[in-house]
Backbone:
């Protein structure tokens, strides 16, 4: 079976960036599992579904018509043929995604879809439960963390670069609330797999983290 590199960790730990660079370097496929929860949320919002109705959300997750395509060097997400790459990053979709991700039915419905991304020569899978639930047999598992303060600061710089003004204090509160939701949910709560290597990226830049991860992959 094609090897999987599982990269899990909390919101803002930089795993998305690291996963993408790693997949490029190794020539592996990439699974952004968070995007699947976001696509489920967007599909539900699009059809005005009741976001608390697990049966409906499970049905939507199980019948998603999605595709990922490389467009101008970036991964574009398509929902029913429509490019929703930007839409799925909107705040209301993030909020909804976090709610639907707490539903066991939705998580079960997305399981096979995630495993289908596994193909030769290998897969880099980015998420919360890649190493614990989706690919428990992954030969390399990394749990990437950073202090809440650092993650809030990174987000702050990112938004400032886009000309968005927000308070650092609000961002920190938001990160803490998300951590709590991710860690306290019933199914697949955020936690490192027993055989995961924990990497703390506080004070380490992207290249520094990438080098450490590459070293783990090569060993
Ligand atoms: O970057 P951010 O943490 O804001 O979002 P994301 O990684 O795109 O994930 C979107 C939502 O899906 C979050 O609420 C995650 O908790 C959830 N998620 C999950 O439950 N399991 C995964 N494997 C990936 C994401």
Residues:
């Amino acid at each position: 079976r094609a090897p999987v590199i599982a990269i899990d960790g909390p919101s803002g730990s930089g795993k998305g960036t690291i996963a993408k660079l790693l997949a490029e370097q190794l020539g592996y496929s990439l699974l952004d599992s968070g995007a699947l929860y976001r696509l489920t949320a967007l599909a539900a919002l699009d059809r005005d579904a009741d976001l608390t109705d697990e049966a409906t959300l499970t049905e939507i997750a199980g019948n998603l018509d999605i595709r990922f395509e490389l467009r101008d060097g970036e991964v574009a997400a398509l929902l029913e043929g429509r490019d929703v790459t930007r839409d799925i990053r909107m705040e209301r979709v993030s909020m909804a995604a976090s709610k639907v991700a707490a539903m066991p039915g939705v998580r079960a419905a997305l399981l096979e879809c995630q495993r289908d991304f596994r193909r030769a020569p290998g897969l880099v899978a980015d998420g919360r439960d890649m190493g614990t639930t989706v690919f428990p047999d992954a030969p390399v598992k990394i749990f990437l963390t950073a202090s809440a303060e650092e993650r809030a600061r990174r987000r702050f710089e990112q938004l400032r670069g886009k000309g968005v003004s927000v308070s650092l204090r609000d961002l920190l509160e938001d990160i803490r609330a998300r951590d709590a939701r991710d860690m306290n949910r019933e199914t697949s709560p955020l936690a490192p797999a027993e055989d995961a290597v924990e990497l703390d990226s506080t004070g380490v830049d992207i290249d520094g983290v990438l080098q450490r991860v590459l070293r783990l992959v090569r060993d």
Observations:
- The mean pLDDT is 94.
- The beta strands are 4-8, 29-32, 66-71, 74-79, 82-83, 123-127, 140-145, 197-200.
- Residues 11, 33-34, 37-38, 94, 97-98, 101, 127-129, 182 surround cytidine-5'-diphosphate (CB under 6 Å).
